[in-house]
Amino acid sequence: MANYKPDLSCQNKFIPINFAEQILPGTFEYALCYIVENKLDLSGFDAWYNNDKTGAAAYPPSVMLKIILLGYAHGLISSRRELTRHPP
Question: Where is the Transposase InsH N-terminal domain positioned along the sequence (predicted)?
Answer without folding.
Answer: 22-81
